[in-house]
TrEMBL record:
Record membrane topology: Multi-pass membrane protein
Ranges of residues in domain Major facilitator superfamily (MFS) profile: 1-380
Membrane-spanning segments: 26-52, 64-83, 89-111, 123-146, 152-173, 203-226, 232-252, 264-284, 290-315, 327-348, 354-376
Location of this chain's protein in the cell: Cell membrane
Main location: membrane
Keyword terms: Cell membrane, Membrane, Transmembrane, Transmembrane helix, Transport
GO CC terms of this entry: plasma membrane
Gene Ontology molecular function terms on file: transmembrane transporter activity
Protein name: Multidrug resistance protein MdtL
Amino acid sequence: MAAWIVTAVFVLSNSATPLYVRWQDAIGFSSATLTAIFASYILGLLLTLLVAGQLSDRYGRRPVLIPGLAAAIVACLLFAGAHSVPMLIAARFLSGVAVGVVVSAGMAAVVDLGGPDRKRQAALVASIAMVLGAGLGPLIAGSLALAMERPVVPTFAVELVVLLTALVAVLILPLKHRGARTDAGWHPHLPAVPRANHRHLHLGIAVFGPGITATSFVLALGPSLLSRLLGVTSPLIAGGMACAMFLTATGVQFAARQLSVRTIFLCGATATILSMGGITLAVASSNAAVLIVAALLAGSGQGLGQLGGLTLIGLHVPGNHRAEANAVLNIGGYVPAGLMPVGTGIAIDQAGLSLGATLFAAALACIAGLGGLTVIRNLGTD
């Protein structure tokens, strides 16, 4: 049930993906504005990650999760009534706040409830809950957009019900306090982990960062690539592509769960590199099928990087630092995931969709390759 809280918020995080093209046509804004709207989500998430993990480790999971779900509900209502760019930015910002809460406190709660003997299995469940929700959101929105002339309100009405069930779960779960409130000298600080765990976080970020940047690009600009470059305008295809990307991220984690963390990381880095090659080929050949394959590979890269990172945290980071470690991992992933697509959106407005997407793919492939080399040099068969 703790995993459902994570899934519910991630359904919201990507529900807007198939609807951006509609909002872009109705309101009228550029690719740079579109990526700025997406970046407001990253900003909300990063600001939340600075404090949510440490507050959760100190005061418990529930007191942090409840405000996070409240932010998600407000974001849902803003999306339902959005008729301007500022409303979309506010909705995306608050959904980022909610995601920041669940990737730190929510995913730590999943591992807490798994117990000391099932840390690796609990890390798998937490990771799958995230990518499953991320995939269901665009599928629901894309299906409703295909079936209805005005799908926005029905989409977020469904999501509101999902979020309310997650709020009930937070209230009834036996979430144990994991902190040390008696420490009178405590004060808020930048997220950190014990020095002995720095290596584990660096390795996780080296692979998870490029992977989630690849999926962020597909979410932010994939629908524009489909419609403007490849001539595919169906919202179901755009939503289905995003859903398939995250369902692939789910499936590869099940397939890789018995592998060593080193092998998981190397497979993740390879998948991200191949994904960027696929995006370059799709743009050059105007082939939608190749773009969809590239999206699936991007999902594999994120899923494997995330699984490896969370597994190292679950196995090696003490419980009273676990939420903070989750925050550090996600900050390391979401900083490039926010900056690179925004830069690409600006490049697209200046140089065109084809050149901007190709430059993004080449840069990220190089970064993913460096991440793979970092794993080869610094991690044995953990």
